[in-house]
Write a structure and sequence with these properties.
Elements: H1 8-27, E1 32-33, H2 34-43, H3 66-69, H4 71-84, E2 90-95, H5 101-112, E3 117-123, H6 127-136, E4 143-146, E5 155-160, E6 170-174, E7 177-186, E8 189-196, H7 199-202, E9 216-218, H8 221-237, E10 240-249, H9 251-254, E11 265-268, E12 271-273, E13 284-286, E14 289-290, H10 291-300, E15 304-310, H11 311-318, H12 320-325, H13 332-346, H14 351-354, E16 355-362
């Protein structure tokens, strides 16, 4: 792979994490599931990708998210929140707030519209990202950081690119049966190795027995558990809605025979590649989301499926065109970057179609116009 070389300090941190991973492998009969490897690579204390001190987002990081592209993303979510919860004090809860850019844009947009925010809670696992958020949001006294999700919450829950960063088991099909792919040490190097797996893992894959030998894919056990937690939290809170924004597919598109190597992807210095064993701790590791399974988990735990849309469909329905119209095209230096950012968020060739929005609710109604873009029938 032709990837940028890390600094000496970054190399040293990666080697330290690899030693930790090797120790975990040794203690578990020389093999750990890929989900455990991914957990250590992303979240190991002080060494994992999200626990270390390097920049993650933006031009100096490894990838860019929608809030980093334009404040209109947060502004559109602010319109949505103010409309859906117009009849009650506005409470927001964000999981994985990144640099704090989305929270800041959303809060600023609400303040400019005269909307009072009763509380804005953030659940952030990364101490390094939490510190950045606290600095960026210092002038918003209603922001509070939580170490764990609340037992009960009523209001709007936001999870932007959260599900894709949760560890996933990898399954591989050999000789007509499913094996779990894990990580071992072979010839002094980290390497993949497959072992027998619980058939409960393969049960998530639709028509699993029809897929060909050599097929490799992910299943979403932790993500489904997160959805059940969200449901319990919103039901205990009385009323609320969850907005989950991520890249992914419904199950019948996710587990296509043609998608024979799954969706696992790594991001390092704005380069995308497929080797999760490369420089552990220095690169992001993600998997696309099975939105059918996410909807099923939420519905099974008592939530209602309000809508399933493309990101473009959601943003256009929530009011993005009005925000763009308020910007004057008479100043090209200001207008063109804004227009280009909106195009990136909404174009089918960019983020508009790849990213989806799943809306799950408990005793909260969604404005009827969202039905025009609803794709729930495709789940």
């Amino acid at each position: 792979m032709s990837l940028p070389e890390p600094s000496a300090d970054a190399h040293a941190a990666s080697r330290a994490l690899e030693r930790l991973i090797r120790e975990a492998i040794r203690e578990n009969n020389d093999w750990i599931p890929f989900s455990r490897y991914m957990e250590l690579a992303l979240y190991a204390k002080d060494l994992g990708y999200y626990a270390g001190g390097s920049a993650k987002l933006g031009k100096d990081g490894d990838f860019t998210t929608a809030p980093e592209i334009t404040p209109l993303f947060g502004g559109t979510l602010a319109l949505f929140a103010a409309e859906v919860f117009a009849a009650q004090p506005l409470r927001l809860l964000e999981f994985g707030a990144g640099t704090g850019k989305l929270a800041g844009d959303l809060l600023q947009a609400l303040v400019l519209r005269g909307v009072t925010v009763a509380s804005y809670q953030i659940v952030e696992l990364s101490a390094e990202l939490r510190a950045r958020q606290q600095l960026a949001l210092a002038h918003y006294p209603q922001v509070e950081w939580l170490d764990a999700p609340p037992v009960a919450f009523g209001g709007l829950v936001i999870a932007n690119e959260v599900l894709d960063a949760m560890p996933v088991p990898l399954l591989a099909r050999h000789a007509g049966r499913w094996l779990e792919r894990g990580v071992t040490v072979d010839d002094e190097r980290l390497a993949f190795a497959d072992r027998e797996c619980s058939q409960a893992l393969a049960a998530q894959i639709p028509e699993a027995e029809q897929l060909p030998d050599g097929y490799v894919t992910e299943v979403h056990i932790q993500q489904a558990g997160f959805m059940r937690m969200l449901a319990d939290m919103l039901r205990a809170g009385g009323s609320g809605m969850a907005v989950l924004i991520d890249y992914g597919f419904p199950a019948h598109e996710y587990y296509l025979p043609q998608r024979a190597q799954g969706t696992l992807m790594c991001h390092y210095r704005h380069h995308a590649h497929g080797d999760p064993l490369y420089l552990p701790g220095l690169q992001d590791i993600t998997a696309h989301v099975d939105f059918t399974e996410m909807a099923r988990a939420g519905l099974g735990a008592g939530l209602e499926l309000a809508a399933y849309l493309s990101q473009a469909g959601f943003l256009l329905s929530a009011g993005l065109p009005g925000l763009l119209q308020a910007e004057s095209p008479e100043n090209p230096k200001r207008w063109l970057p804004i227009a280009n950012a909106v195009q990136k968020l909404t174009s089918p060739a960019e983020m508009g179609e790849l990213f989806k929005v799943l809306l799950l609710s408990h005793q909260v109604d969604l404005p009827k116009r969202f039905r025009l873009q609803d794709r729930s029938h495709r789940l």
